[in-house]
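Q: What structure does this chain adopt?
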Amino acid sequence: MKKFTVLLLTGLLAAAALVACSSAPSGPSGTASEIADKVFEESGVEPFGMADTIDDEDKMNWYLGSTNYSELAESAVVLPMISLDTRSLYILKANSDGDVDGILAQLTEDIDPNKLICVSFSLEDVVIESRGDVIFMTINSNVEQREALVTAFAGIE
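A:
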């Protein structure tokens, strides 16, 4: 009986470990635009512009610095109306979790402080994060806003 109990407990622990290890972290739910709204709401940062989508190669090149990306399932890009502002927020939804690493690597390569938006910024102003199939990027020279947006993205459902 003792042997059976030990085997049963060992099997249950192994099954629990497999389930825990196999479940990938999920991303926030909703469309890219809804996720951007949640980030702003949760962070307490007022939206600093209108949202746009990346729906053609010209916009992809303008917003992301190149067209070397796999197809995105959805996107929301929030930029200020005044081009002298260095704040921006990007929500990119990959077609699958498997595409995320490639998109992250390409974003890191394409971030150009002199090209990506109309004014220069420091690479210290850039944060890129991902959860599940959702990629979050913000360029924001306001440290408090940048940190609030990053924290909000990490915590929204």
